[in-house]
Design goal:
single chain, 544 residues, mainly alpha, Amino acid/polyamine transporter I, three-stranded mixed beta sheet, 1% strand
Length: 544
């Protein structure tokens, strides 16, 4: 079976129909000069070939939504919620490593596994939920970028929201350079954000002992602490990140052997740990700066009012008044870098989600415009009607939506990574499976508890007629029942589809080595991941 190039000149990929355990993996038949090739050798130098995807994933942990919730956490509870960031970062490392392993071992990303595993209706519902999560993630990026433009250039927020649509042009310009150049750009932006907030930390000078206590002594004091903690969690562990990470790891050409796969999984975990550690330090800096500034003894009445309703825009004025003009400018630069880098990763996550769930490939600029328009419309309406304060509240709402939607990406990932028919010899151990399921269960339990208690409080304290309360209660609890039923379906449903593994057993590896000679055997990268473009469909004329 041979494959020829399409009319556009882009290489295509299809699955062969052989009997070997890896034959149905959606691989490329020809090489690409832009691919990242991992040498077939035992060396720590291989780590540099794997560096990159972790930084693209880490952007989701330092996007404007995180900054918004971090600022409010520091302003209202000083350093008491820092432990949430520590716990969420550790959980994120475990979860992101599983997503990376799924892609490395099977050659398919999470959305593609969902399409092959679930029936059409559940698969479609999961796709809708994933799309909502991406839009909810894009809203803070749009508003954050608009706030940054306001801080740096005094552009009104609503005009800044419209200008964020122009980021499509930036994405189109970047796509021609491929994933490797994009990874370097994102890493540069991450370190730019880190440098800005390290400088802010030097201005604010928080108490080191109190910061350490906040990191390692769990506390949830006050009526709004639980809600803000869930917002922090939702802003840290994002559903679209699981789809993105499992796809980005397919951009590497790795040796197709048990040792090669194990090395790839190990190095991806190390790389993710480094990138997420940088993101963790940035979040700690934001909360520490906010906590130090808003709990300072020399605040005037106006600054105290700003701390009570602190959002991204108010933070700029607060930092300028308390720490000086340069502090405000540094915050604006960090926020602009965060918003633009988050736009890039969010857009590509959307591409892989649509391609994986629906096998639908859109032109990248069309996909970006669709996602961006869905985020711009509510952001623009809120910015025009509610101003910067309303836009700030919309970021918190978006973060909580992400937290509630997380189980619908997390549960399939946990199921697939713990399934031997999909992962083969690289399936999660019993201990890792237990730990990850405990993490997932805790996250889901916190979400459900907050959802139920918050809805009950809303009904009890609302000034509406009893009949209306009963009607709203029936609708609300019906929605909760559907939410719980959806999670239960994903948890209890047994996996039925086996995956043709890229990682061979020892005997298969030896057999292939004998057939191919002494040269290394590689799993070729996915062309749609390498070039950050979705491949066009093959036509019958392309296949001989």
């Amino acid at each position: 079976m041979a494959i020829t190039g399409s009319g556009s000149g882009q290489p295509q990929f299809i699955s062969s129909t052989g009997n070997r355990s890896f034959s149905n993996a959606p691989l490329i038949e020809n090489s690409d000069t832009n691919q990242v090739v991992v040498p077939d050798r035992r060396s720590w130098k291989n780590l540099f070939a794997y560096m990159g995807p972790g930084f693209l994933v880490s952007i989701a942990y330092i996007d404007p939504g995180n900054f918004e919730t971090d600022l409010q956490a520091g302003a209202q509870y000083k350093y008491e919620l820092l432990w949430i960031i520590l716990v969420a970062s550790c959980a994120a490392l475990v979860i992101q490593s599983m997503a990376a392993n799924l892609g490395v071992v099977t050659g398919k990303h999470l959305a593609e596994h969902c399409r092959t595993e679930y029936p059409r209706v559940p698969n479609f519902i999961l796709w809708i939920i994933a799309e909502i999560a991406i839009v909810a993630c894009d809203i803070p990026e749009v508003i954050g970028t608009a706030f940054a433009l306001n801080m740096l250039f005094n552009i009104p927020v609503w005009i800044g929201v419209l200008l964020t649509g122009l980021s499509t042009l930036i994405l189109l310009a970047l796509q021609q350079y491929g994933v490797r150049k994009l990874e370097f750009l994102i890493a540069f932006l991450v370190f730019t954000i880190a440098a800005c907030f390290m400088a802010e930390l030097g201005y604010a000078k928080p108490d080191a002992k109190e910061v350490t206590k906040g990191l390692f002594v769990p506390e949830l004091k006050g009526n709004g602490a639980t809600g803000l903690a869930i917002s922090l969690l939702g802003a840290m562990v994002m559903p679209h990140n699981l789809f993105l990470h499992s796809a980005l790891v397919l951009s590497r050409k790795i040796p197709r052997s048990v040792r090669g796969i194990k090395e790839a999984c190990s190095f991806y975990m190390i790389e993710s740990a480094f990138a997420l550690s940088v993101a963790f330090l940035i979040n700690v800096c934001v909360i520490s700066v906010s906590g130090a500034v808003c709990n300072s003894s020399n605040l005037n009445a106006e600054d105290q009012m700003s701390c009570q309703n602190l959002d991204l825009n108010e933070a700029s004025f607060l930092l300028r008044n308390v720490l000086g003009k340069w502090s405000s400018k540094l915050f604006g630069i960090a926020l602009l870098a965060s918003g633009q880098s988050s736009t890039i990763t969010g857009t590509y996550a959307g591409q892989y989600v649509m391609q994986g769930f629906l096998d639908l490939r859109l032109e990248p600029w069309i996909r970006n415009m669709l996602t961006r328009c869905l985020a711009i419309v509510p952001s623009l309406i809120v910015a025009v009607i509610g101003g910067s304060a309303g836009a700030g509240k919309l970021i918190i709402i978006a973060s909580m939506i992400l937290s509630f939607e997380l189980p619908f990406a997390l549960v399939p990932l946990l199921k697939f990574a713990s399934c031997k028919t999909k992962m083969g010899a690289h399936v999660n151990s019993t201990m890792i499976s237990a730990v990850t399921w405990v993490i997932g269960t805790l996250i889901m339990a916190i979400n459900i508890y907050y959802l139920i208690t918050g809805f009950i409080k809303l009904l009890l304290h609302s000034h509406i007629e009893i009949v209306a309360k009963v009607f709203l209660g029936m609708i609300g609890f019906s929605g909760m029942a559907i939410y719980l039923a959806g999670i239960a379906y994903l948890v209890l449903r047994k996996n039925t589809e086996a995956t043709h593994l890229l990682a061979l057993t020892a005997s298969e590896n030896q057999q292939m080595t004998n057939e191919q000679g002494n040269g290394p055997i590689y799993s070729l990268p996915r062309e749609d991941i390498v070039s950050m473009q979705l491949p066009q469909r093959s036509t019958p004329a392309d296949v001989d």
